Amino acid sequence: MTLAETGFPGWMELCGSVRPDVRVPMRDGALAALTLWLPKGEGPFPVVLTTSLSRRRVTIDHPNVRSLLGAGFAVASADARGRYESEGELDPTYGEQSGRDMHDTVQWLAAQPWCSGAVGTFGGSHRAYYQTSMAKTGMPGALKAMATWTGGYRAGRTEGAGPPMSGGVIALGTTLIWLPNEAGGVLDRLAATGVDVAAAKSTLARMRSHPRETFEHLPLLEAPITKFGDLRELFAYRLARTSVPSDGVAVPPGEVITTPVFHEAGWFDHAAWMQIETFNRLREEAGTAAARAGQHIVLGPWPHGMSFADRLGDMYFGPEAGSAGSPVEDLHARFFRKYLAGADVDVPAVTYFVMGRNEWRTSDVWPPAGVSRQRLYLRGRGAANSAAGDGLLSADAPGDDEPADEFRYDPADPVPTLGGALDWQLVIPGMLAGPVEQGPVERRADVLCYTTEPLRSAAEISGPVVLNLFASTSAVDTDF
Fold first, then answer.
1. Do residues 133 and 140 lie in contact, with contact meaning Cβ atoms separated by under 8 Å?
2. Cα–Cα distance list, 173 to 179, 238, 434 (Å)
3. What is the Cα–Cα distance from 81 to 31, expressed in whole angstroms?
4. Which of 137, 200, 209, 442 has the greatest number of CB atoms lying within 10 Å of its CB?
5. What residues have CB less than 8 Å from 474, skipping those under 6 apart?
6. What Rg, from alpha-carbon coordinates, does the chain have?
7. Least trusted range by pLDDT, from 189-193, 197-201, 331-335
């Protein structure tokens, strides 16, 4: 990596120096590649670390990194084990090996003369999993705070952290994004040992350029990518999920987390449910009083992946939703100032964006105090098919004589995903994350629609939406 690759426009105004080729020894002798940015001024400095499957220079371009440098923090960005310049074998499960590597990196940073001895970690999605993987092996003493964004502790499985399920089912698009992300590095390392990977690379390239061929392949487990051993194993791992996130899964106890945590999620993030659940759980179960009191969360109108724009899908949420207009960068920096530098600054427990009103609010709890839970029922006369059907969302429970609604699922003509909680990196033509007009879907006979009567007054909906669904199927396996 060259010095030019480590920067962003104007980086020299914030950095005192940059070290692009630091090597950090792990306990098994492998060397992790790391880039270090030191802020201007006299050290030593608190250090904030992020570890990524992506190339190191990608993360430093993010405005949150610039805000950290401007606040006087050193920033370290590492390649994960087995990626790019970091030695060792990639662990796609973010298991104990990842935890040991993060532990060793944190302790090494804390011991350097330019470090104050206080280290924090941050990053979204898989970068969040790398942070919380330390809980599997014991939190390092130098770690004082974590910022796990759009993912992390509650992965829905104990042995690893595949893409979290969305609404209880596998997010197929996310699975098919991550396979190329991971597989490229796997194939490069196989090629370096003399293995012929030409056919596998050709299949992978076809998967990237024609993703529909893979996710429309039936049966999915026999898609062309599964012809190659290492790629088949990655693919199978990504698809091996329980039918319900909590079904038979022993989530690690909250007490293993012993630091304050800054959580972030978007209303259109497939991992948002997990992040909100983790925030509330750690407020009750984290291993120290300081950790329990130090849980903070920000919730905005965003997709997955630390992408803060003022527009998403078909909606414009105003300048307050974008990176520059929202409080997210300032809150991120204030969090670390409070817990790494000991500054006397206020960080609200909950900061959330009310869509429709397009305004930010704060709260001491989530859901906000004063919320009243409402129970609505799916009702109809047996013909809720499409928006033109008789499906009703009602405050009154259905009678015993109301018939069930039915639909026929044809795997050769699946209902398409239009918007919603998708990974922002989804590059499939016609697919957008966020709020998207659902008319084309709601006109289908294999979609059941339930709608309330017109509301008599404005209503704010802030809090979780839970569906208790009673259903049966004639198929061997069905996603609802």
1. no
2. 10, 11, 14
3. 8
4. 200
5. none
6. 24
7. 189-193
Range 310-313 contact pairs with CB under 8 angstroms and sequence separation of 24 or more: 312/268, 312/433, 312/434, 312/435, 313/268, 313/419, 313/432, 313/433, 313/434, 313/435, 313/436
Owner of token pair 């922002």: 424
Dig out the tokens for 32 from the structure: 């992790």
C-alpha span between 434 and 179 (Å, rounded): 23
Q: In b/e form, how buried is each residue of 177-214, taking b as 16+ CB within 10 angstroms?
A: bbbbebbbbbbebbeeeeeebeebbebbeebbeebeeb
- Whether omega before 44 lies within 30 degrees of 0, making that bond cis, reads yes
Separation of alpha carbons 298 and 326, rounded Å: 10
Are 391 and 453 in contact by the 8 Å Cβ rule? The answer is no
Q: Look at residue 52 in the predicted model and tell me its pLDDT.
A: 83
Joined tokens for residue 43: 């050290």
CA distance 36 to 358: 38
Instruction: Report helix, strand or coil for 450.
Output: coil
SS3 call for 149: strand
Helix axes 229-239, 198-209, angle to 10 degrees: 40
Nearest-angstrom CA–CA distance, 264 and 352:
10
Greater confidence (406 vs 236) lies with 406
pLDDT digits (tens, 9 = 90+) for 158-177: 334 445 555 666 667 666 76
> Tokens 């050769």 sit at which residue?
412
Pairing of strands 295-300, 350-354: parallel
> What amino acid is encoded at 40 in this protein?
K
- Inter-residue contact 90 to 36 (CB < 8 Å): no
Binned at pLDDT 50, 70 and 90, residue 225 comes out as confident
Mean pLDDT of 409-423: 83
Write down the H helix ranges in 193-239.
Answer: 198-209, 211-215, 229-239
Q: Phi and psi at residue 23, in whole multiples of 5°?
A: -120, 125
Residue type for position 84: Y
What is residue 186's DSSP assignment? Answer: H
Confirm if 46 and 19 have CB atoms less than 8 A apart: no
pTM of the model: 0.87
34 Ramachandran zone, left/alpha/beta (phi>0; psi -120 to 50): beta
Check: CB of residue 45 under 8 Å from CB of residue 38.
Answer: yes
Cα distance from N-terminal residue to C-terminal residue, the chain:
47
pLDDT band of residue 425 (cuts 50, 70, 90) is: low
- Nearest 10 degrees: CA dihedral of 4, 8, 10, 11? -70
Do strands 115-124 and 143-149 pair parallel, antiparallel, or not at all (unpaired)? parallel
